[in-house]
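Just curious: can you write a single protein's sequence together with how it folds?
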Amino acid sequence: MIRILQFLLLIVLIAGTITFVAGLEGRIQGEAFGWKFNGSSGLIVGGFVLLIIAVSYLTGVVKDLMALPAKMRAREAKARREKGIVALTRGLEAVAVGDASDAVHHARIARRHLDEMSLTRLLSAQAAQMNGDDIAARDSFSAMLEAPETEFLGLRGLYLQAMARNDKDAARAHAERAFALRANAKWAFQSVFDLALERGAWGDARAALVKARKNKLLPSVEIDRADAVLLSADAASVLLAGDEKTAVGEVEAALKLAPGFTPAAVTAARLYGGQGRKAKAVKILEHAFAVAPHPALARALGAVCTDEKAETRAQAFARLADKAADSPEAILLRARRDLLQEDHDAAIARLEPLLADAPTAETLTLMAEAMTAKHGEAAARGWYEHAASAPRDPRPGADGEFHFTREGWAQLVREYMAHGRLSPPPLEAAHFRLSTEEIKLLAAPPVLAAADDAEAESQEEAEDDFSKVTVPQGDLSRGEEPVPETTSTDEDDHIHNDEEADRAATAARKVS
């Protein structure tokens, strides 16, 4: 509709122009280039307009003729580019389905038809990798570094190749260059971070975390937890060199990032306790216990208060237990408090519920201590035997000590960063259990236990007497009753009197 309107307007314009020119009156005389002209105004003006139109048309025709070779070359280049794009697409499809020969074939066609080598180098590198030609793949990846648009992809390819041949130095160089090029690339951060952890470069790992935080590659809470572990690892390193001042500063910074990180809390408490700042040490332990109860915190508190009176230590244990009142660690702390206050019955009553549900060696040892204090060492012997065979607490530092290797710190960084725990949960459930009868028997006073043992022995002897009696088979079809016979042993080869014989016969009848 718009084109029709434009055409009509053009017709009206032309008609108006012709009418205007035809309506001109007068004559025009002049001389140009030796030519004299004298004619009507309308004719001369109309001729001049037609001349301009003809010149314009001829100029366009000449320009089209002159541009024809360029247009033909452009059309040919376009056709080549289209063929190259098709080959590139099919080559990438071949890579996706794992067809190495087809990928190499289409990569060759794409290189021949595409002038932009950056588009084909990635395909060539991937095809070479699939074909097992690592040298050709490395050359292609290296060539990609020359173009800004493919540099990052080339670095990733070279990094993966270096990792495949276990060349960690080269892999580190490629990963760091890629991370500097694009700080928002998660694979580059993860590569730099993991390689720093592997070689124990805690400072480099923390620098990578700074960039990750800036570019929001990970949640802030995960970065805080990882940073806390790295600070604690560095504190452990500087402590070995005797630099307690730096270690204190680092564990304090770690606890600000992750208040419940037990290794940092234990280290800080020991350092402050060694400086005589026991109140500060206790406060740190209580804060950490409230976030994440752990037996190492209780042991650290005991070490800090080791020179205090029993009542003072009992109160300290009670305050720590109140920070996480429902945890098993709190129950053990209250049991320790009861033992310090010589309330042995209360300690035993607290421990019995834990004994029925996968008790650890620490729970059994505390029960043994309570039984020793109440009934003497003889009453604790069974508890100590069970404690020796009971499973230990699988958590790191359950014995109160954290002695991580470099690999251990690296694993702890990953675990605590991702899950907020010191180690993965055990794969197998604890199979060690104590039945209610066993608990009652072990918790009984020695006299009652001895009486129960005597009764059990007498019952076993009676069963042995029954086992010494044999009943020969009579001819039951004729109604004959079996005749009891006695078997002789080395110690007793006959029945001494008639009364014993009657009892044996009666027992034999009951058995038959």
In short: The CA atoms of residues 472 and 482 lie 6 Å apart.
